[in-house]
Amino acid sequence: MANPVDPTLVLQELCASATARTANALTVLNAVLEQQSRITPLDFSMATIGRLSKEQGGPSTQTIRNRTGKHFQQLIEAWAAYAGTTCKKPLSVRQKQLLNSNDQHILDAIDDPVIRAVVGSLIAERNKYRDQLNTLKANSDLFIDRTKGDKTNTTLENKQLVPLEVEAIKDAISDAFFNKQGWEVMPTGQVKDAKGNEIYKRGYVNGIKKFFNCLS
Q1: Position 209 pLDDT exceeds 70
Q2: What is the side-by-side order of every strand in the sheet holding 198-200?
Q3: Most buried pick, 68, 133, 144, 205, via CB within 10 A?
Q4: Cα–Cα dist 150/93, whole Å
Q5: 212 Cβ partners below 8 Å, 6+ apart?
Q6: DSSP 88
Q7: CA 118, CA 121: separation in Å to the nearest integer?
């Protein structure tokens, strides 16, 4: 794999074609990124960098994620690659715990640190969502009563969620969780990431909220 480009060169190239205001913002952002490259675990996620940058008078997370923030994104990506990682949020302690032995064998077989970081993050996210789905399946036997015309009466049959399970599912659709991930909930209940990619299909959030209304 080719050596990553020195981010200082990327900064110079971006500033050469930018306005004075943008060049100044890039310089502030670069200082934040340089400092971040010395901190472990390495975290070059846009949410983290945007927060730190804003504190220093640089571009915020939303500014970086905007369509017009490509130059900021390029600088962050350059620093992440130079540091041997990606722009993904590093695995938390909980996410690392979700990795089973087979998953770990897969990661251990990947020499490239960038690819290993990406695969590890994807595996942890997959395991987390699978656990949430299994929890829903194990504790939500639903009976749909269609005997009353157009009115659908959804009731919980036989099983009852315990408080810990209820809180876990509520946390999975909370504003705090979506904000942390940089995701947006659409009016249809669909969930998208900052780039507009679909995370959950239409009806996901609304369906779970209706489920909880049935329990109350």
Answers
A1: yes
A2: 184-185, 191-192, 198-200
A3: 205
A4: 48
A5: 166, 169, 170
A6: S
A7: 5
HEC per residue, 122-191: HHHHHHHHHHHHHHHHHHCCEEEEEEECCEEEEEECCCCCCHHHHHHHHHHCCHHHHHHHCCEECCCCCE
Residue the block writes with tokens 């939303």: 62
Q: How many residues does the chain have?
A: 216
The one-character DSSP state at 3 is P
Report the share of the chain in percent with pLDDT over 90.
30
**Looking at residues 28-41, what average pLDDT do you find?**
92
* Residue for token pair 């969780």: 177
Contact indicator for 100, 124 with CB cutoff of 8 Å = no
The amino acid sitting at 136 is: L
Q: Where residue 164 falls among pLDDT bands split at 50, 70, 90? A: confident
